[in-house]
Amino acid sequence: MKVLIATLLWVLALVAVWEKVDVYRTGYAIEQLRAEKKKAQHEQRTLELELARVTAPENIERVAVTKLGMVRPRYDQVVLVGPRPKPLNPGALPVVHLASH
Amino acid sequence: MIEPRERRGRLIVAGVIVGLGFCVILGRLFQLQVIQAADLKQKAGRQHHRVLTVEGGRGTIYDRGGKILSMNLDVPSVFGEPRAIEDTRGTAARLAGVLLADAGQLEAKLKTGRGFVWLERRLAPEKAERLRALSLQGIGWITEGRHFYPNGSLLAHVLGFANIDNDGLEGLERRYDGHLRGERGHFIVEHDALGGAVFPKELNYSAPSAGKDLILTIDEVIQYVAEQELDQAVTKTRAAAGIVIVSNPKTGAILAMAGRPTFDPNTPGIDSSLWRNRAIADTYEPGSTFKIVTAAAALEEDLFLPGDLVYGEDGKYSVESTVVHDHHKHGWMTFAEVLQKSSNIGIIKVGQRLGALKLAEYVTAFGFGQKTGIDLNGEVRGLAREQEDWGRRSLASISMGQEVGVTALQMISAASVIANGGWLMSPYLVSEIKGPSGHISRLEPTVRRRVISSKTAGMMIDILRGVVLPGGTGTLAAVPGYDVAGKTGTAQKIDPNTGRYSNIKTVASFVGFLPAHDPALTILVVIDEPKSDQWGGTVAAPVFQRIAAQSVRHLGIAPLGVQGDALAMRPDIVSEPRDNSWGLGLAVSLHPPFPGMRQDASLSPVHPPALKSAKTDFFSHVPPPALKSFRPVADERQRVPRTDVFAHVPPPALKSFRPVADERQRVPRTDVFAPGSADRGAR
C-alpha cells in the first residue's frame, strides 16, 4: 500500500513537472513565432517602402532618361486613339451574291 | 562506553541545537513569508516579469492611386554601454564606418563612463542591416518608429513631417496627428534565468493600436509634373518663390499643391521658413486674375452682356485725380475683350457701374477674406476689407485686383466657381481615413454656396476661352487639341522702401481650367518676383500649359474630336460630356459640380436636397429666383451628407470677418494709382 501511494505521488509530481516544462517550451515557441511574425511584417513594410522609392516618378524618370535613353514625347509624337470601331455583326452585313458565269 | 546519563545529556544538547536551528529557520521563514512578503513579492515580480511598452505604428499616407507618400517603419536606435566595452577605440572605429559618423566623437561618447549612451537614434534601414552584422560587444539597439517620405521633397508642404517622438509638427502630419498616431500597447513578459522572454501573460496584454491611414486627393504624377515645371520656371526666371495648385473644380479636391522654396521632410532641418505652405499662408495682390470676379459680378447683375461695348479711353483714364494707363491703347471694345485684352480701364468702368456695395458682396461671395476651410493648419484669411472701410479709389483698385490680398488657394477656388457652373467648393486634401480594422471613413466634397448662376458661369467661360486665343493675353497657355479658358495676372508688388508699387518686383500668375466645355482641372501658377521676365502671360502661362498638357495626358482626357475610350479611362476626373449649350456657342456642365464623379470610393455621387431644387433651373436662360436674390450672408454653406463625420473645418461666418492687423497683409491704400505705375499694375 505504501509503495503504491509513493508511486502515485511520484507520478503526480512527474506530471506536474512535465506540465510546467511543456508550458515553458510552448511559451518559447510562441515567443519565437511572434518574433518571426514581427520580423516578416517588418520586412514586408521595408519592401513596401523600397517599392515606393523605386517607383517614385522622379526615380522612374531618372532611369528612363539616363539608363534607357528615353525622352518626353512631343505633341506630334502622341496619338490619342478614338473609340474602337464596333465589331461587325455578320447578320447585319449585306449579302453579296456572286454572279456565276 | 558512554553512560546513559551522559548520552541523554548529549542528545538534549543536540536537540536544543537542532531545535534552535529550526527556530532560526522558522523565524527567517516567518520574516520572509509574512513580514517581508509584500516587498519581496514585488522585487521578484520586477526580476521575473517585465512590462514592455509597444508603440502603435503611425499610419501611412497614400495618394489617390494608392502610392505611399509617407510611411512609418520600425528602425533600430543604437546605444552603447561604455562599461561593457573593452576596446573603445576599435569599437568606435568600426561603428563610424557603419554610422558614417566621426570616429573621434563616437569614442568620446563611449568614454564617458556612463552606463548608457545614445549613439544614433532611428537609423536608416541599410545602416541597421550593417550594424546587426557587426555584432559589437557593449553596443545594442532598440527599435523605434521613424517616418519615411520615399518621394523626398515631393509634396513636402502638404505632408509636413513628424518629429523623433512621432508628434506631427507640420502639414497633414500635424492636422491629422490624432488619426495617424497609434495607441501604445503594454504586455508583461516572464523571464528565464538568462533574461530571455519566456511567454507573455496574455491576461495582462493590451495590444497596441496602429494609427489610421490617410488616402489623399493628391495625384502623385500630377504633383511631380507640377513640381518639375515649377522648379524649372523658378530657376529660369530667377524668381524668389512660386506656387502651383491643381484641383478638380467640381469637387474642390486638390490634385497637386507645390511651393518653392521647399525642403525634404526626411531631413527637415531648422529653417522653418522653408516649411511654410505658401499656397495657404502667403497673401499676394492678384492683379488681373481678380478681374474675373468683377466681370462675373457685372454679368450676374445683368449690367452687361459679353457683346456690350466699353470705351477704353485710348489707354488713359483719370480716377479720383489719378491717371490709370493700359498696357496697350484701346478704344471701343466689347465686354469680353476687356478681359481678353486685360484692360484696366475697361474693368474699372465695369466696376464703377457695378458699384462698391455689389463688388464687395461678390468679393466676399467668391470666398476672399475668409479661410477656405482646407484641412491644413496655418491658413490665413487674406485681406478683403469691408466696403465701409474702402477708400476713394478702392472701387477702381479692387476692380482690377489691387487693394486685396488673396491666397493662392482662394484664387483657385474662385476660378473654380466659374469652371464648375457657379458653386464655391471647399478645397480638401484627405478623401478617406482608413482604420487598422479596415473601417473606411470617406470625406465628401462640400459645397459652400452658389455664387453665380450657371448662365453667368457659361458666359464667363466663353469670355475666358478668348484669353488664350490669338489676340488674348494668355496665348502661351493654349494646349493644342484642348479647349482652355483662363486669365493672366501681373501684379506689381509694394516696394517696402518707398511704399509705392515697384516697377521691378511683380507677381506673375495664370489661372485657368480645361477642357473649357467640361472642366476637369483648374490650375493656378503664381511666380513671385521673376527677374528675367515679369508678365503673367509669358512667365506663368507657359508653366500652366506644360502642366495642363501632361496632366490631361496622364488622366486620359481626350482632346477635342477624340471621344470614347480615352474619356472612359479616368471616370473619377472626367464627367460625361453634356450637351447643355444654350446659344453662346459652348456647352457647359450645368450640374452641381460633384455628381457623377467616382462610384467606387470617396466621391460617390451625392445630390444634396437643397441643391436638387436649383438643378431644375440649370437649363433655363433666366437664373432661378433663388439665385437672383442671392446675398452672401453667413452660413449659406450647403454641406453634402458624408458617410462619416470628419468634416473639414468650415470657414468662419462671413459676417465675422475683420481685416487682420498684420502689416504684412495690409495693402496701402495710398499710392495705388501712382503715376507711371498703374499702367502695368494689373495686366
- Helix-and-strand structural type of chain A: mainly alpha
How far from one another are the termini of chain A? Answer: 122 Å
Helix content of chain A: 55-70%
Weakly predicted, low-confidence segments of chain B: 564-683
Largest sheet descriptor of chain A: none
How would a crystallographer describe the biggest sheet of chain B? 7 strands, mixed
Structural account:
The complex is a heterodimer of chains A (101) and B (683). By secondary structure, chain A is mostly helical. Chain A is built from two helices and no strands. In chain A, 63% of the residues lie in helices and 0% in strands. Helices cover 31% and strands 19% of the residues of chain B. In chain B, the strands form six sheets. In chain B, strands 2, 3, 4, 5, 8, 16 and 17 form a seven-stranded mixed beta sheet that branches. A five-stranded antiparallel beta sheet of chain B has the order 10-9-21-20-19, with helices on both faces. Chain B is elongated, with a radius of gyration of 34 Å. The A-B interface holds A 23-24, 26-28, 30-31, 42, 45-46, 48-49, 51-53, 55-58, 75, 78, 80-84 and B 67-68, 71, 73-74, 125, 148, 150-152, 154, 190, 192, 197-200, 220-221, 224, 480-481, 549, 553, 558-559, 561-566.
List the helices and strands and how they pair.
The complex is a heterodimer of chains A (101) and B (683).
Chain A: H1 2-54, H2 57-67
Chain B: H1 4-35, H2 37-48, E1 49-54, E2 61-62, E3 68-80, H3 88-99, H4 103-110, E4 117-120, H5 125-134, E5 139-148, H6 156-159, H7 171-175, H8 177-180, E6 185-191, E7 197-200, E8 213-216, H9 220-237, E9 241-247, E10 254-260, H10 278-281, H11 291-300, E11 309-311, E12 316-319, E13 322-325, E14 332-334, H12 335-340, H13 344-354, H14 356-365, H15 394-399, H16 408-419, E15 423-426, E16 430-434, E17 440-442, E18 446-450, H17 454-465, E19 485-494, E20 501-514, E21 521-528, H18 536-555, H19 565-568, H20 609-615, H21 625-628
Parallel strand pairs in B: 2-8
Antiparallel strand pairs in B: 1-6, 2-3, 3-4, 3-5, 6-7, 8-16, 9-10, 9-21, 11-14, 12-13, 15-18, 16-17, 19-20, 20-21
